[in-house]
């Protein structure tokens, strides 16, 4: 029986329980991630990255390969990884034996210390330079890797997907009129069936920058930069109103999925696997400036942290991987390709961002921060084969906020009460 003192505290128990976090806690970390890669000869060691990720308040990281040292660096950090299966592994991974060997060699040794949530099979395979030779391997590799995970008892923990660019769309404006390229439907429709069965998301690399750079007189800069004060654009087909281009691009993919596979459209979620804005470019790369990059990436963070969906899917929070955190000096292509990073390799900001991520914006215990601001070569952009991998540099520590401290204290009080009640 509890003592009189403890009995007097019993009425407080419901109030204390209300202070406890739900499991899992609903935070913007469920939506915001960071791309991390190594196409540079001056990047910091992988061992320095997890601490920096935690200090930024970001709990999800996208890798573009399965480098053992990089994966091992995230062990026991709580950071959730999306691990890339490089294009050159697709052929071998498209067989049951090859897929099982890949999982056994690259994924199994990292578990359970490293938290791996996704395998992204290739990157922009259907629109890349090697699409003619690789496309036939994409779905078989996804299926075989999923089966290999299932055989290892990991399919509930690790989902299998692939990332596309907007080049898979025949048209994207207005969003309600979007549909996939007809030549890609024989591949995309079965991939959508796979996503629906496996419960994995459809990933898209979405860049308003490319739309603006290709037609600066026809696309308003503020709309492409996701500026919150922009009046927006109406979709005459759906009647929906779009205040920023990123949401319009995501909904265009949703509409294309619906046009191609109505059954899958009810089950498949679209997530943004890359988005960003370059801080420098060649003379003909319109809009590639530090000011525009700062505005765009700050607005992406703000938009994702709000936890809202798109006009077409308002109840599905927008999930995004930022592209990216380091400028990578060995990436080929135009100047912009080497200037998507929030940070320079030496850890100094490429430009300043004043947006502060929420303190609980991660899946580990690290706080938020103020951003001031070797894998293979993969693509982003409309049908291009250029892409990237980025790393992260220093950011300040943020102390535990009052609300988080209160919840921790409440948890301790509830634990003490629970023990005392049965003494």
Automatic annotation (TrEMBL):
InterPro entries associated with the record: GH, Glyco_hydro_17, Glyco_hydro_17_plant
One GO process term, biological-process aspect: carbohydrate metabolic process
Catalytic activity: Hydrolysis of (1->3)-beta-D-glucosidic linkages in (1->3)-beta-D-glucans
SUPFAM superfamilies, sorted: (Trans)glycosidases
EC numbers for this chain: 3.2.1.39
Endpoints of the signal sequence: 1-26
Xref: Gene3D superfamilies: Glycosidases
Record Pfam families: Glyco_hydro_17
Single annotated GO MF: glucan endo-1,3-beta-D-glucosidase activity
Keywords from the UniProt entry: Glycosidase, Hydrolase, Signal
Family that this chain belongs to: Belongs to the glycosyl hydrolase 17 family.
Protein name per the record: glucan endo-1,3-beta-D-glucosidase
Organism per entry: Panicum virgatum
């Amino acid at each position: 029986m509890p003592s009189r003192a403890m009995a007097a505290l019993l009425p407080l128990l419901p109030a204390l329980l209300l202070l406890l976090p739900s499991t899992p806690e609903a935070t913007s970390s469920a939506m915001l991630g960071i791309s991390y890669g190594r196409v540079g000869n001056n990047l910091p060691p992988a061992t320095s990255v997890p601490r920096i990720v935690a200090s930024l308040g970001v709990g999800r990281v996208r890798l573009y390969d399965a480098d053992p040292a990089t994966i091992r660096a995230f062990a026991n950090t709580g950071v959730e990884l999306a691990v890339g299966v490089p294009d050159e592994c697709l052929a071998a991974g498209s067989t049951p034996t090859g897929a099982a060997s890949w999982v056994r060699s690259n994924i199994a040794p990292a578990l359970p210390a490293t938290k791996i949530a996704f395998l992204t099979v290739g990157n922009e395979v259907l629109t890349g330079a090697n699409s003619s030779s690789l496309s036939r391997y994409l779905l078989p590799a996804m299926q075989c890797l999923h089966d290999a995970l299932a055989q290892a008892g990991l399919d509930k923990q690790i989902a299998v997907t692939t990332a596309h660019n907007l080049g898979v769309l025949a048209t994207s404006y207005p969003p309600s009129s979007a549909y996939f390229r007809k030549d890609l439907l024989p591949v995309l429709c079965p991939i959508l069936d796979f996503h629906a069965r496996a419960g994995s998301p459809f990933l898209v690399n979405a860049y308003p920058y490319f739309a603006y750079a290709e037609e600066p007189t026809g696309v308003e800069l503020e709309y492409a930069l996701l500026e919150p004060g922009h009046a927006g654009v109406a979709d005459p087909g759906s009647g929906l109103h779009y205040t920023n281009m990123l949401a319009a691009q995501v909904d265009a993919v949703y509409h294309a999925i619906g046009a191609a596979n109505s059954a899958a459209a009810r089950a498949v979620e679209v997530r943004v696997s890359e988005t960003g804005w370059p801080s420098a470019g060649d003379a003909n790369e319109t809009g590639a400036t530090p000011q525009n990059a700062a505005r765009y990436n700050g607005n992406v963070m703000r938009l994702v942290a709000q936890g809202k969906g798109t006009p077409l899917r308002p109840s599905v929070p927008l999930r995004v991987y930022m592209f990216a955190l380091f400028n990578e000096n060995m990436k080929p292509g135009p100047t912009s390709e080497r200037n998507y990073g929030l940070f320079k390799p030496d850890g100094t900001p490429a430009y300043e961002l004043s947006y502060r991520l929420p303190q609980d914006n991660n899946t580990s215990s690290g706080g938020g921060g103020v951003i001031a601001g070797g894998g293979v070569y993969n693509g982003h952009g409309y049908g291009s084969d250029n892409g990237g991998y980025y790393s992260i540099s220093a950011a300040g520590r943020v102390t535990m906020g009052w609300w988080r401290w209160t919840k921790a204290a409440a948890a301790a009080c509830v634990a003490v009460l629970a023990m005392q009640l049965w003494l």
